[in-house]
Amino acid sequence: MSALAVKSLHKIFGSRADEAVRRLAGGAPRAEALAGLPATAAVIDATFEVRPGEIFVVMGLSGSGKSTLIRMLNGLLRPTAGSVRIDGVEVTSLKPAALRRLRRDKVSMVFQHFALMPHRTVLENAGYALEVAGLPKAQRRERAMDALRMVGLTEWADKLPHDLSGGMRQRVGLARALAAGTDILLMDEAFSALDPLIRREIQDQLLELQAELGKTIVFITHDLNEAMRLGDRIAVMRDGRIVQIGTAEEILTDPANDYVAQFVADVDRTRILTAASVMEKPHHVLDVNAGPRVAARALRESQTSVVYVTGPGKRFLGTVTEDEVLRALRENRSNLDGYVSGERVRTVTEDTAVADLFADCAESQHPVAVLDDRGRLTGVIPRITLLSALASATPDEAPHPPVPPPADPATGPAEAELVGGEEIPA
After folding, report:
1. 237 φ, ψ to 5°?
2. Which of these, 130, 256, 297, 344, could form a disulfide with 244 (CB 3.0-4.6 Å)?
3. How far is the C-alpha of 228 from the C-alpha of 224, rounded, in Å?
4. SS3 29
5. Per the domain annotation, does 60 fall within a domain?
6. Tens of pLDDT along 65-91?
7. Does 32 fall in a domain?
């Protein structure tokens, strides 16, 4: 079951809201559908689900409806129509007391402008939600101090908010949400008031905390780079409607319309796309127990100078070359064990950014091997494939790859019927 599910959610400000919802149902642009009607549509037919432990980013320009949307998720605004369910509970129909319990036990919110109480210390601000919940003072202090430790502010526990920098105040707001112990965090433009360097530092801290805690986070931002960096999935909003939902790679490589394409046009794709998105399937992969004649045939058929070899559990071991296959044949060996080298081919993980592949590709004579989290070979990246990915990046932002070394004639493509200049028996 999803942690949070939204279906056909609308928010109309003004009168004749029901008629506005009916007019908008046809999909006409907001201004056209509501022409002559004393109503403003902030959110139109929003539908999505957020998985447990996911960072779901809602991105859009000012006026797109994203802040109105997040305020409906915890009942700060009542929707005009539609459904919001948290852990299967319908939020839109909750009475005030039940809604307060939901905010106390299930959902915390981090605001854009910190929302700290200036007369309370950092520790007291961090533990405020626990005070409202009626926890004993000693327990409040322990949990608040633990939250401050997570965000690196234990030494500032007795200071007042005005003694802190903007980035530190935002960390107090984050600590307050963490101290509450809720499974869901709603973050409304939480980092937009920070300077760029501090903002990146807080983003790093959020990602580290998420790796440790596995919270479900709905994060609102107008910053595309922030969305691409933080989001497991991203919802792009325009004029109150969600126009696309997908991963950063999906939105970059397959934008839903011209608006999304223009929105992401200036993104440095080499920082977003990963090895998994550009890799190719290797022509031949052999088990280490395969015989040298099988390896010779694979070299001949694939017209390559190496064959990739795996061992128990399909774990990648390395490669064998033409010369090694010839040696195994002369020695009348029954398998490739002892002839495989893991040194000549560079390896990367599937989530390695394209921007970080250039050095490996330049320094390796053969296509870079891409491994999954269990060390299994899932693909290879030839230099030409990487250069093609580079060509699709924004010219002004794309990194310049190192110049690859000249090809070694001794390890060039195999001839059709020869390996290393000698005929190999079939």
Report:
1. -110, 145
2. 256
3. 6
4. coil
5. yes
6. 999 999 999 999 999 999 999 999 999
7. no
> Can you tell me the mean pLDDT for 376-395?
76
> Long-range pairs for 28-37 at CB < 8 Å and ≥24 separation?
29/239, 30/239, 30/240, 30/241, 31/239
Task: Give the number of other CB atoms < 10 A from CB of residue 401.
Answer: 17
- 314/404 same-domain check: yes
Count the residues in the chain. 426
DSSP H helix total and E strand total for the chain: 18, 18
Q: Which domain holds residue 410?
A: 276-423
Structure token digits, residue 195: 């300077």
Q: Is residue 30 part of a domain?
A: no
Q: Give residue-wise pLDDT tens across range 270-327.
A: 778 888 888 988 878 999 999 889 989 888 887 777 889 999 988 999 998 888 899 9
Q: How far apart are CA 356 and CA 335, in angstroms?
A: 35
35 burial type by CB count under 10 A (0-12 exposed, 13-18 middle, 19+ buried): exposed
| CA–CA dist 291, 270 (Å, integer) | 40
Q: Is the pLDDT of residue 397 over 50?
A: no
User: Where does 192-256 have alpha helices with state H?
Assistant: 196-213, 224-230, 248-253
- For residue 321 the two structure tokens come to 């070359």
Q: Are residues 286 and 168 part of one domain?
A: no
Q: Would you say residue 253 has pLDDT above 80?
A: yes
Which whole-number Å values give the CA distances from 97 to 79, 101, 129, in the listed order? 18, 6, 16
